[in-house]
Amino acid sequence: MVGLLRTPFTPYVWRRFAYALLAPLVGLFALGLALSGRYGAAGHLQRALVRTLLQVPLDEPQPAGNGAHPLLHTVVALPLSVATFFLTTYALTGLVLNVAYPVRVDGFPFDLPGLFTPSHALDGAWGGPTLAGAWAFHGVVGGLLFVYAGSAIVCGLVMLQSRLAGKLLATKEVRTRVFV
Q1: Which of 109, 126, 150, 173 lies most in the core, judged by the most C-beta atoms within 10 Å?
Q2: Packing angle of the helix pair 39-49, 143-169 (nearest 10 deg)
Q3: Helix spans in the chain (H)
Q4: Is this structure's pTM higher than 0.70?
């Protein structure tokens, strides 16, 4: 049970968040490289990102080529990378906005009510009518929801991306050894 509570705060999860934020940018750059005929550089760039952040064992193909498809990977993975990027930024934004709830109150910072003073501005807020109650509810319930649900969704989407990279960027030897 303790391991489950600790999971969103592990390096494993944060590397996946970093991959989700960097993959579309690297994918667009790799697409430009591949369209200009530099398939090797595009594949190398994508494999380096996958190896570094996802720790997937991808080796560099030989110059003769043995089954790695960097252009195909870029074209197929880019829409998934963009969708994962937007879901990741949504989860991180939701986390920050819920933990920093007083920033969202109307009239911030000038008409901010006292921490334990009832306010009409917070009558409709969950956990209101005091700022302390609204902040506690949004910080705990909203923050934990975005941390746990967001990390599970992002890790699932990044797992799909790592499987796709393993199928399209790995050499045939690595594919049969790792991804079968």
Answers
A1: 150
A2: 140
A3: 2-6, 11-35, 39-49, 70-99, 131-137, 143-169, 172-178
A4: yes
